[in-house]
Amino acid sequence: MPSDPKIPDAVRRLGKIHHVALVVGSIEASIELWRGALGLDLETIMDIPYDRVRIAFLGVGESKIELVQPTDDSTGVARFLASKGEGFHHVCFEVVNLAESLLRLEIDGIELIDTAPRKGAEGPVAFLHPRSCHGVLVELIEAPGGPAWASLGMT
User: Fold this and answer.
1) DSSP E strands: which ranges in 77-144?
2) Residue 15, Cα to own-chain centre: how many angstroms?
3) pTM, to two decimals
4) What mean pLDDT do residues 6-24 have?
5) N or C end of the chain: which has fewer CB within 10 A?
6) Alpha-carbon distance 30 to 69, whole Å?
7) H-helix segments, the chain
């Protein structure tokens, strides 16, 4: 099957799916389903004060499910929950070099939310705007040990 010329090379070169994020009203209630009924392993629950959310990661194969609960009603995540309810929020792909990927995507006309890597819960991250991704919020995370880890003081 030939490649779609509308999909930039930088997107075709993405690594594995790191996680799929779901917005939830309550992490504890959601864990009952994902951990209890579906048997996923709970890796961590943590507060992310700078994003005003509480998150949980549950492992599934080489990827994860991220549960995202807003902790402040004025955030985008809280507005998303209020308007759309619980459910799919974004997909996150792993890349080798985040800054390089962002530059290539921007050159290819993809609208970036983050123009440079920033600290995320599990490494340097950046988001692509849903307007450029057919309505889907896309997150990119740099693979462990990549150049943005050192520049952001992450280990």
Assistant:
1) 87-95, 118-120, 123-128, 137-142
2) 13
3) 0.88
4) 78
5) N
6) 10
7) 9-12, 27-31, 76-84, 98-107, 147-151
Tokens at 112, concatenated: 């970036």
Residues 6+ apart with CB under 8 A from 13: 95, 101
Residue 111 near residue 137, CB atoms below 8 Å: no
Cα gap 26→128, rounded to integer Å: 26
CB-based contact 20:91 (threshold 8 Å): yes
Structural contact between residues 20 and 63, judged by C-beta atoms closer than 8 angstroms: yes
Q: How far does Cα 37 stand from its chain's mean position? A: 24
CA–CA distance, 132 with 31 (Å, rounded to integer): 32
Report the distance separating Cα 133 and Cα 118, nearest Å.
20
Task: State pLDDT tens for residues 102-146.
Answer: 999 999 899 999 999 999 999 999 999 999 999 999 999 999 999
> Can you read off the two tokens belonging to residue 98?
């985040």
CA distances from 84 to 34, 38, 151, 154 (A): 20, 24, 36, 34
Residue 139: closest CA among 102, 86, 103: 102
